[in-house]
Amino acid sequence: MRDPELSADADRRIGEGRPAALAWQDAVDAVADRFERLPDAYLQERAQDVRSIGERVMRLLLGVTEPESLGEGILVVDELDPALAISLDAAEIQGVVTRRGGGLGHGVLIARARGVPVLTGVGDRAAVTAGTMIAFDVRSGRLEIDPPAEVQAAFGDMLDRRRRERERALADAHLPALTRDGARVAVKANVSSVATARLGAGLGAQGSGLVRTEAVFAQWHRAPTVEQQVEVYTAMAEAFAPHPVTVRTWDVGGDKPLDFIPVAEEANPFLGVRGIRAFRDDPGLLLDQLEALCRVARTHRINVLFPMVTSVDDVDWSRARLQEAARRVGLSAPPHQLGVGIMVEVPAVAVRLTRLARGLDFVSIGTNDLSQYTLAAERGNPAVSRWSDALDPALLQLVRYICDRAPQGVVVSVCGELASDPDVAGLLVGLGVRELSASPSAVPTVKARLRTVSLRELQDLAAGAVAARDAAAVRELLLTAP
Ligand code: PEP
Ligand code: MG
């Protein structure tokens, strides 16, 4: 990296005490932002080049191996891990097919958030050699190897239709999502960095319903200080202003390791010390995070979201820590504009929602985990993926139950992957959900699709889905839905 201005800026920030990786990221963001603000569309696009060089240097700084250039085409791999996912360039690669990976592994989520279509767990059907032609459709799960000319043409037509749909959705991205009969749905973005926050805001997201802080700081070896966190959360809040940003506290454990919050090895990590449980014995880093959020909330619209809550005691304990953090910043109570909510990921919380959500501002349904705990099938394990389908009617019934039982004034949001599927978003609305938080790139299409239907139609669809035999039957219903 020979640009003297960029390296001097990074050096200056390091001199001020910023860790090298963050200093570099800030310097790159500053240059990219300047490009983005230029009036010329061609020059605006150069921001992407700056960011992509920035990422390469970042990988070197963090010791992440530089992948060979993948170029255009479809990548076929056994599993998609987060390191590979981070290196994918959506402008080049047309998609990824995994032989064994489940649909909700974190590598898959990262690739999708970057706009790369991923078809997972296709098994030996993808035993192909380099150069083979492949066509696939994530929405229907269809995969064609060496398709004949007429199938290629049909895929081409479908792509054209989708491209037109996407263009229309982008043109209307900043309009609200109102169904034909006037029901209003807030569509927000799930974010895992300041850059994805800006991307989501630019694509019309009405705030963020989920900031995965364990992903924001995933590459850090030492815990960020309160000041460093204030800086990051403020930048996110500013990206979405005047809409609020919901920051989830460290959701460590399960398949989400954080160097600076070590969790003991366990036989069943997904049933072990995850999320809020990791801080019961030593709340220090949670208190730092809550202090940062209380500070930002004094001037910005921000909410706090507690993950992996299971009991009334978990809720009370979490709120007591928030109270403690507020006192640290000289307040007698958390700033009143700081909304407080919990993830609904554990069936016990859904069943006792009326009691657990009392006094909260919102609850956010994490369908990725709620499905693995409801269906007893691990989210990233391809051997059980047939049992871990989030469209299982049992899960849909739980979503409806949660919407029906939420205390008056408590907003019910969905931030799991289901909300990012434009075919499924309407079904969630039919079940009673009025706030969705989707992958940033999905926001315009989700909004556009909701505008084409009436709430009445969605409620009928939901009634049929809840009564369906299984997830496959729900998918059939979605294919014929309005
Ligand atoms: C979920 O469980 O649905 C969720 C949104 O949280 P994560 O995927 O980060 O576990
Ligand atoms: Mg979860």
Q: What is the count of DSSP helices, taking H or I runs of 4+ residues?
A: 19
Oligomer state equals: single chain
What strand line-up does the widest sheet have? 7-8-9-10-11-12-13-14
Major beta sheet summary: 8 strands, parallel, barrel
The best one-word shape is globular
Distance between the termini: 52 Å
Mean residue pLDDT:
90
Ligand inventory:
phosphoenolpyruvate, magnesium ion
Taken as a percent bin, the fraction of beta residues is 5-15%
- What structural category do the secondary elements indicate? alpha/beta
Radius of gyration, Cα only, in angstroms? 22 Å
Q: Pick out the low-confidence regions.
A: none
Helix content: 40-55%
The total of beta strands comes to: 14
Describe this structure in words.
β1 (73-77), α4 (82-87) and β2 (93-98) form a beta-alpha-beta unit. The protein has 482 residues and is α/β, with parallel strands linked by helices. The mean pLDDT is 90. The protein has helices at 4-15, 20-36, 41-62, 82-87, 106-113, 149-171, 194-202, 213-216, 226-240, 284-297, 312-328, 347-351, 353-356, 367-375, 393-405, 422-431, 443-451, 455-467, 471-480, and strands at residues 73-77, 93-98, 118-119, 134-137, 142-145, 177-178, 184-191, 208-212, 245-248, 302-306, 339-344, 362-365, 411-414, 435-438. The radius of gyration is 22 Å and the shape is globular. Strands 7-8-9-10-11-12-13-14 form an 8-stranded parallel beta barrel, surrounded by 7 helices. The structure holds phosphoenolpyruvate (PEP) and magnesium ion. Magnesium ion (MG) binds at residues 345, 366, 368-369.
